[in-house]
Fold Glucose-6-phosphate 1-dehydrogenase.
Amino acid sequence: MTKQQEPRALIVIFGATGDLAMRKLYPSIFNLCRNGQIDENVAIIGAARKPWNHMEFRQRVLESISNNLESDESPNAFLSRFYYQQVDVTDEASYKELHHLVIDLEEKYDTDGNRMFYLAMAPEFFGMIAQRIDRFGLKNSDGWTRLVIEKPFGHDLASAQKLNNEVREAFDEDQIYRIDHYLGKEMVQNIEVIRFANGIFGHLWNNQFISNIQITSSESLGVEERFHFYNQSGAARDMVQNHMLQMLALLAMEPPITLDTDEVRSEKIKVFRAMRRIKPDKVDEYFVRGQYDRGEINGKQVVSYQEEHEDLKGSNTETFVAGKIYIDNYRWAGVPFYIRTGKRMAEKAAKIVVEFKNMPMNLYYDEKDKQQPNLLVINVQPEEGVTLHLNAKSNKPGTQAEPIKLSYLYNHKSGMRSPEAYEKLLLDCMLGDATNFTHWDEVALSWAFIDSVIEGWKRKKPNFPNYKAGTMGPDAAHELLEKDGFHWWPIKDI
Ligand SMILES: NC(=O)C1=CN([C@@H]2O[C@H](COP(=O)(O)OP(=O)(O)OC[C@H]3O[C@@H](n4cnc5c(N)ncnc54)[C@H](OP(=O)(O)O)[C@@H]3O)[C@@H](O)[C@H]2O)C=CC1
Ligand SMILES: O=C1O[C@H](COP(=O)(O)O)[C@@H](O)[C@H](O)[C@H]1O
């Protein structure tokens, strides 16, 4: 968290007619307005090629927020702040027309000259738009100008570096807000608080007391309409390089000296630097890849990845990744961080399990009835909460101790709604708080790590498909932990 400013701004959304804008951005802006977190000094320009006028655009925005509207609530004041400008980002004249509208609205809404440009467009346009915003005078020297960039930020280190150079020719690092929506999730933000505000965890958070940490983000859906993008990307690039490694960094970083953006980022960067790089010829010791076959999810038969579209036939793209990552520093030497993510798995869930080492001597359990390790479970989604697994006195005949759970569920409190990730991140950007956005060094180091895994995979053709839809991935993902004497903790009811 960094010193916060007032949320006064003109927001320009490139890609305003697209899926992300409709499904995530407009409902998030609506919630921020309804909660009074942004007010009359914020207006929004939607920019895309569709030949819409302001009224047609407002109608689409209305449709996108219809699920959020109460029956007796009028959306008119909210919608009146939305304007549309037809823009082809490849056409220079578009930027000049956009500039005129920006100037008009800035005066009307008294936005102090603050401008947020949100790039909700295909990544190949990111560099071009950033440079043209600069070249056509859309950056404002009176207020602040910020550029929000969606993922993916590159396809590998080389392309990310090229994109970063292009963007940096027009914007300074502190003006660039690279989105990783996992950093906007309530329980991901809670990792730091749980660690740094609780002595019982803070003091034990190291290799003396923790045996391993497991991070899972599983999805039950397949690739759906995004198959074209996904087939060129795969789970390692789509989920591991960003979301999974970001959660790992928050779990592993040293306490920052303050919560200022630079301090938090600098601790995360140190984690990325300490991550043991996997040599391509050793990739199979550390990483497992998978692709789903036909299977059953929620009682419904589903087709294999390769059957989802004719273009996917014969594909070698991984839809599942499990990995073991070591952080070679004093705190974490010898502690494996296991990560696991994939499509068409048994459940949609994201969960972190911190497994503590057992007591050195066991008074209450015998050989057949082993002591359960203490677990701290951070439920990221769908439930949001924390569960602590302890051992306590048992009343059952023949046993002296048994595992019990202490749970706190955030989203089960009546009337409590966790803000959507995009809601928080949009507000953070307006407030000038870049803590929950990724710094270039984090992006570069995580690409370097993933590139060597992918390089190792390229050397050997995978034997795909290798897991059934509706399961928790290929057998090799389970063996990865078993050979270290661990197992994956379940993602349900834990
Ligand atoms: N959808 C999602 O859930 C997520 C998306 N993202 C990222 O967000 C970005 C956008 O994704 P998504 O919304 O799904 O993509 P869509 O394909 O749904 O939308 C693309 C948008 O770009 C506009 N566009 C395309 N070409 C031009 C052009 N030459 N000039 C101006 N506008 C143009 C399209 O509008 P028009 O045709 O009217 O010009 C449309 O508004 C991508 O980087 C994606 O990776 C990230 C996470 C999740
Ligand atoms: O960034 C992405 O994330 C989603 C999963 O996000 P979640 O918030 O629903 O867990 C994933 O489906 C998508 O492939 C990926 O690009």
Notes: The CA atoms of residues 220 and 343 lie 6 Å apart. The pocket of NDP (ligand 1) is lined by residues 15-20, 48-50, 87-90, 120-123, 150-152 (CB under 6 Å).
